[in-house]
Amino acid sequence: MSSWSVYALLAGVLSAAASLSAKLSVGAGPLRDMCEAALLVPLRLLCGVLLFACNAVMWTFFSKALRHCSSSARATVTTTASNFISSAFLGRVIFGETHALLWWLGISITLCGLLVLHGAAPRTPSQAEDEKDK
């Protein structure tokens, strides 16, 4: 596995973690069920801090993925797919969410596109110039 794909996968996971932190910091329902009322405000503040921290690290990893990848589309689609899958997993584990058939169809199409992008050979600059000249 190349370094850019690891960075892109981590960026997607961190993006999902940031979304989870936002949901926990704004909607107090799940936190209220897990702790006493006295801990609710500090935990919501902690989730708010985690939101910004996860976003900062996510953008760092996404930038590294873009820098190391030959195609920005590959890095973007890999990050998006990782985000979708991580969000589905965290939503199921933390909130007990389920997804409709249409959601699964959408993520399947996204993953198929990801496989096509990963399977295609990267174009060299000379190949791009040759196509431009035609």
UniProtKB/TrEMBL annotation:
InterPro entries for this protein: EmrE-like, TMEM42
N-terminal signal peptide: 1-19
Keyword Ligase: no
Record field: transmembrane: 37-62, 101-121
Keyword rRNA-binding: no
Sorted UniProt keywords: Membrane, Signal, Transmembrane, Transmembrane helix
Source organism superkingdom: Eukaryota
Protein name as it appears in the record: Putative transmembrane protein 42-like
Organism listed in the record: Scophthalmus maximus
